[in-house]
Design brief:
Blueprint (H helix, E strand, L loop, with lengths): L2 H9 L9 H10 L5 E7 L1 H4 L9 H19 L3 E9 L2 E8 L22
Length: 119
């Protein structure tokens, strides 16, 4: 484990939801390329389920909202979602800021290219 990973895991407790959707979006706006933020530590797929009982209903909703926003931002080319395995059912979920900036041509709607059918 790198020194940076040790630093992140040392500051983020297991099952902690350190930020909400607004704070994550604010981070995207202010972050520079390659900046990184940890948005969860645990097992995201399992911990989002009500049946596991790991998180309170409020934390579970906040986690689901942030995780969904990370994936939307990834689809827009703004961040790279990354996970680092720390142990059994213990992962560190990170968003790494991509090079793209909000409002640039690369962030606008993709150009649709029609497929040519073979004759």
């Amino acid at each position: 484990m790198s020194a940076y990973s040790r630093h992140l895991t040392g500051t983020l407790a297991l099952h902690a939801v350190p930020l909400d959707e607004n704070r994550f979006v604010d981070w995207i706006v202010d972050a520079k390329a390659h900046d990184c933020i940890a948005y969860y530590r645990g097992h995201l797929a399992l911990d989002r389920c009500e049946s596991t009982g790991v998180l309170s209903p409020t934390d579970r909703r906040r986690l689901a909202t942030v995780a969904n926003r990370v994936m939307v931002a990834s689809g827009q080319g703004l961040v790279f979602p990354v996970q680092k395995r720390l142990g059994p059912h213990d992962y560190l979920y990170l968003a790494v800021r991509a090079l793209g900036r909000l409002g640039t041509a690369a962030m606008r709607a993709p150009r649709i290219v029609p497929l040519k059918m073979a004759a």
